[in-house]
Amino acid sequence: MNKRIGIIGSGTAGLQLAYSLKNDFDVTLLHYEEADDIRREKIRSTQVHFRPTRDREHRFHMPETDAAPSIKTIHFNMGQQKLFVGRLTGAATSVDQRMAYSNAMDDLAEQGVSLRKARVSRNEIKDLAESYDLLIDATGKSGPLLPFPVEAGLTPFDAPQRKCIVGYFTGVAPVEPVGISITVLPGVGEMFEIPALTEQGAVTILFIEALPEGMLDAFKGVRSAQEFEERMKSMLQENFPAIYGRVDPDHFALVDEAAFLQTAITPVIRRPYLMLNGTLVLGCGDSVFLADPITGQGCNTASYCAEQLYESLMAHKESPWDEEVGIDYWKRTRPYLAAVTEWTNAMTGPMPEHIVQMLMQAATDQQIADKVAHWFEKPSKAHEAFFQQTY
Ligand SMILES: Cc1cc2nc3c(=O)[nH]c(=O)nc-3n(C[C@H](O)[C@H](O)[C@H](O)COP(=O)(O)OP(=O)(O)OC[C@H]3O[C@@H](n4cnc5c(N)ncnc54)[C@H](O)[C@@H]3O)c2cc1C
After folding, report:
1. What's the CA angle centered on 209, arms 208 and 214, to 5 degrees?
2. For the whole prediction, is pTM greater than 0.90?
3. 321/179 same-domain check
4. What's the structural domain count of the chain?
């Protein structure tokens, strides 16, 4: 009999895990929203999947869409000055998670994977664990459901370093060549423009990372889509004139009433394994590896760790699943986690002087510009640049 795995949560981590594990194990995906409800809900992320993540999705035969804008570059602006356009090594995409998650859930159900609607509570997790050889907590930032211990060395903050303000807009012409555009306003925050696909078609995501109480932290009390649109328009006029120059006032609007969000994240990294009454429980994705989205790495980290979790389980396919498997999974993922976490946390602080110098050099040296773009595909390279000053 195949080993039984219960995956709690049908987000980036849970879905990739379900695809990768479904042919070798008896997988149940526990989720608390139906696919059709997700389609109508609020947006959740800006979800840029860089090339390594897309390669993993391809490896595990996850649904792909050709219609998503192909993100091939990173545009970098410091204040009002455009510095450079770095080239990614492969195309990235951003597909509205409402669309990607619901399509993947429908597809998994069609492929015979067991999907069970359940909002798992902390009280029932012990009973649930008895039904499985392994339980995976992929509950995202509302998790974890279990007390995975905090890794103090990778968890320096006890409060959010940014307010995250996101809207999916029509009526903003994308930058050329198509890519992500980053504008850093030192001391107050950042603006990210991201071309993305929604069920209603292509949009430009405007994503503000505001230092709390600073000039960009200007959306307090905004509740309705209309208020959000108005506030964003004046934000562009006042602080981002280059973006405002690409706005078509007749078509500037949120793509739907639910296409905006405000949140703030306190980053925390946890050791992702424990035993519960003899059953192994592993964590994957935001439930155990939660970061500020400033470097756009959360989905990419979830996908990387989900693949490593798959590799650990395949390596131990025929042996009992106990703490050894958890230790193996953590050994595989910790170096990546340390690099992406330390880089991401550093990005929320003042930019180190040698990084400012590097960005200035990138303005006249295409190779350096490409290296900076590459950071987002391979966070260990960013870590080397930030902490070993090698590039
Ligand atoms: C503003 C913002 C912008 C971002 N931009 C990017 C980006 O550009 N690139 C990037 O890589 N990352 C980005 N991220 C991070 C990224 O969205 C997350 O890291 C990623 O979605 C995590 O995937 P996950 O599967 O762990 O969690 P989620 O995608 O949150 O999925 C968790 C799922 O678990 C379900 N669930 C929760 N509790 C229970 C329960 N008790 N029982 C059953 N089901 C449950 C939820 O309903 C949800 O469907 C961004 C995040 C934010 C907030």
Report:
1. 100
2. yes
3. no
4. 2
